[in-house]
Specification:
The chain is built from 14 helices and 15 strands. It is of the alpha/beta class and about 450 residues long.
């Protein structure tokens, strides 16, 4: 069990000789973010002038060029590109999904979208009987006799009882990621997956899925929760329902792309690096505001805040706009690969990839003695509504760095209640982000980085 923040820690903290000085620094950081912040205007440009920017697309390259310029304008001592090859998946034309009753009557079109990395259907689509399951584990119970030649409808919902909604996401997302490869083992011709959200609406949620190379690849799409509920109800009275699916998605040849890296040099320990970042790519069906435009502009804001306040971090701060988190993680893998090749010293890595909502804490993965030190800093954050340091984990893009070098990792944890309403949808737009909440996130990142830079882990 991890040690909880207690009154005893608060009392212990007041005795430390750095509390007053760092509290003043925190105040300056938050005041700067909330009065002169550039996160919101930067997010507006990224969303409205560029929009969806899936790896390999022209929009992704536009985002690289923009991020390079934005880091320069933030005052970075140096900005450079880190090359990586990325997959280039394209959605193609608008997907079509229809439910067909017995005899071909009662056709109802339903909101769907292709899952990322899915193959397309034949040009004239696929029509087959639907069979509903509530998770991958049910496939084997049904067996090939009942699944062969059918479209599997995965209808496991997110668990609404978890207060931390990422736990619910983790409990439901596997049917999206692995459903197609598992269903094809039993002869399925396609899969339709309930959108991974607790919102009840007509917005299908895309997201990455994967195939096993040893198995046939079948089309996979997401269906909105309202349509999933309707389809489930209808199937109870009509087991012979058929589903028509048409998608033109496909892979094009891989493209050259880049991580964008901006640095502020450390004043005393320049060779020790603190990484802060988010992912620059975003699904093509929206503007990628919460996922993960917010993390990008907050990471750039860290550079701006330090320069604006004249803060001189002891260690080098490196803001990274990672490429291809959504459907390949090539940027995160390349970053770790180059860190190993260059024998870099990474003190810590922090990711923001959970939306632009009010920050509540930082999940983390580090040694017990490092976590103990982290908890002594926790009272500094309490006046700013940041209190939770008790969850495990870092972020996807910094995971390879942690695996390769054992680097302590953190992820900013905003309030999660609304994140999955927007995640991977057409409504993940600039208008869905609150300016003040976004700026608070950039301040929280800057404050944590200050403590790590000053005192190490």
């Amino acid at each position: 069990m991890r040690t909880k923040l207690t009154i005893a820690i608060l009392i212990l903290f007041t005795a430390t000789n750095y509390a007053q000085t760092d509290s003043a620094i925190f105040k300056k950081i938050y005041n700067e973010a909330l009065t002169n912040g550039k996160s919101y205007s930067n997010l507006n440009y990224l969303c409205k002038k560029i929009g969806g920017r899936l790896a390999g697309s022209p929009q992704a390259q536009q985002a690289v060029d923009w991020a390079f310029k934005a880091m320069k304008e933030a005052g970075a001592d140096t900005v450079y590109l880190q090359e990586c090859m990325v997959p280039h998946w394209v959605r193609g034309g608008k997907e079509v999904g229809k439910v067909i009753s017995t005899g071909g009557k009662g056709i109802k079109e339903v909101p769907i979208c292709a899952l990322g990395n899915s193959v397309g259907t034949p040009a004239d689509g696929i029509t087959a009987q639907v069979i509903e399951v509530f998770g991958i584990e049910e496939l084997e119970k049904l067996g090939k006799e009942k699944i062969q030649g059918k479209i599997v409808f995965f209808n496991k919902p997110m668990d609404p009882t978890n207060i931390e909604t990422f736990r619910s996401y983790g409990g439901a997302v596997m049917q999206r990621w692995a459903g197609a490869s598992e269903a094809v083992k039993f002869g399925a011709v396609a899969v339709v997956v309930r959108s991974v959200t607790m919102a009840q609406d007509d917005n299908p949620h895309t997201g990455s899925m994967g195939y096993k190379d040893s198995l046939n690849k079948i089309p996979a799409c997401a269906i909105s929760t309202n349509a999933a509920n309707w389809l489930s109800t209808y199937l109870k009275t009509n087991k012979e329902l058929k589903f028509y699916l048409k998608m033109s998605c496909k892979f094009l040849p891989e493209e050259k792309s880049y991580n964008v890296i901006g640095e502020i040099y450390g004043s005393e320990k320049k060779d020790e690096i603190i990484t802060v970042g988010g992912h620059l790519d975003a699904w093509d069906n929206g503007e990628g505001a919460h996922d993960d435009g917010a993390g990008i502009v907050q990471s750039i804001e860290v550079l701006r805040i330090y320069k604006a306040l004249g803060l001189k971090p002891k260690r080098t701060i490196r803001a990274v706009a990672f490429m291809n988190e959504e459907n390949g993680l090539r940027g995160g893998k390349k970053y770790a690969e180059m860190a190993v090749l260059k024998k870099e010293k990474h003190t810590a890595a922090i990711e923001s990839d959970a939306g632009g909502f009010s920050p509540r804490g930082f999940s983390n993965d580090m040694k017990p003695e490092q976590r103990k030190k982290l908890l002594t800093w926790a009272p500094l954050f309490l006046p700013y509504g940041v209190y939770d340091f008790d969850n495990d984990g870092g972020g996807a893009d910094i995971g390879p760095l942690h695996d390769a070098l054992g680097t302590p990792v953190f992820e900013l944890m905003p309030d999660s209640q609304r994140y999955f309403d927007f995640h991977h949808t057409a409504i993940d737009t600039f208008e869905a982000v609150n300016k003040r909440e976004l700026e608070l996130g950039g301040a929280a990142l800057s404050a944590l980085i200050w403590m790590i830079s000053e005192y190490g882990l």
